[in-house]
UniProtKB/TrEMBL annotation:
PROSITE patterns: CBS. Its main location: membrane. This is Zinc metalloprotease. SMART domains: CBS. The keyword Ligase does not apply. It comes from Dichotomicrobium thermohalophilum.
Amino acid sequence: MFGRSYYLFSLLGFRIGLDASWFILAFLIVWSLSTGYFPAVIEGLPQVTYLWMGVLGALGLFASLIFHELAHAVVARQYDLRISGITLFVFGGVAQLEEEPRTAKAEFLVAIAGPIASILLSALFFGVSASGIFGGIDPLLAVIGYLAIINFILAAFNMVPAFPLDGGRILRAILWWWSGNMSRATRMAATVGGGLGIALMAFGAYNAFTGIVVAGMWQILIGFFIYRAAGMAREQAGNLPGPGHAHIGAIIDRDQPRVPADASLETAAQDYFYRLRPRILLVEDGERVVGTLTLGDYAHVPKMQWGDIPVRQVMQPLTDQPMAQPAEPAKEVLKRMVREGHTHVVIVDTGRVVGVLSRRDIMNFVEPQEERSASTATAQQAE
């Protein structure tokens, strides 16, 4: 989903990053606010004032998106779900969960936390705007009023039941609770999301052809994003059931980066996670693998202490890790991970650790295998 991401800061133990595509959104917001919205709200101000109002509005939206995603991340952490970070990109922001929620209740609460946070923020801005605390400073009141409105819109839009938007995840949680089957619920919610994505693209095309070009193009892009993301979710859900024959050993990268157990958390973050961007690291003590490390393990460590705390102090010991052998079928390992709620598996060959794989790594391998098998079967039937 993302291209190059820039690390900004950590907040409440979560890494906040900025995808390069965010700069496109920031430019469009500043431009539209300073040339259209604010001049219509308050007439007769110097253009430089409108420009600064646009910048403040964009920064306020930036902070609002972080607040929205932090709500998801904080609730996810309460359910022991690991979050690799929060990334802002051209269509908003996302809290990047390393694993799916284990229950429908957890999925529902994690999903609804974001819209609730945005509604609360909207109410706060409305209250500040109405309180008269800033007297007659009209430009500042206009920016605060904009943030009140945009947070309400953010909450309302995210409640649309189009997976993977928050509303779609809420729909999946309800379907999951009703059916007892997460894969089926994901496929159903993703199908609804894909349909709504197509509808939004069609609506955007209509607007573009009837003169509302900018809004129409934006709706087409968002609709395509929803349609594509829903399709990926549906395909991944379809990979879960049924046996598979590709072995897990075919996925292993035996040159995976390994971090010394005595290295500081700061070194591991800067030299490994932020530079190489692995989902998970093996931790070595000499020549022996002793554990694993993810960004989620940093959650309860203040950033100012990263330079003083060694990796071994927060890593997950190897003895606590789920394990698999290279000869095991990839789909069987994936099914076991989903069933037992594991985010990764350590691969052991004749007593020696040869790699570690995340659930996403295995999904990304299994999907093309399934497509090739289906294509081969279709070709054989045609012959």
